[in-house]
Design goal:
By secondary structure, the chain is mainly alpha-helical. It is built from two helices and no strands. It has one domain.
Length: about 35
Amino acid sequence: MIITYLNFQNFIYAYTNSRLGKISDIRLLSPIP
């Protein structure tokens, strides 16, 4: 449950940075925040 939450937060973080024009593909593909 916690791991899933962290993965979700990491996805949102990467998606947000991507929207800001930053390259966050590594963060997005990484399961560890």
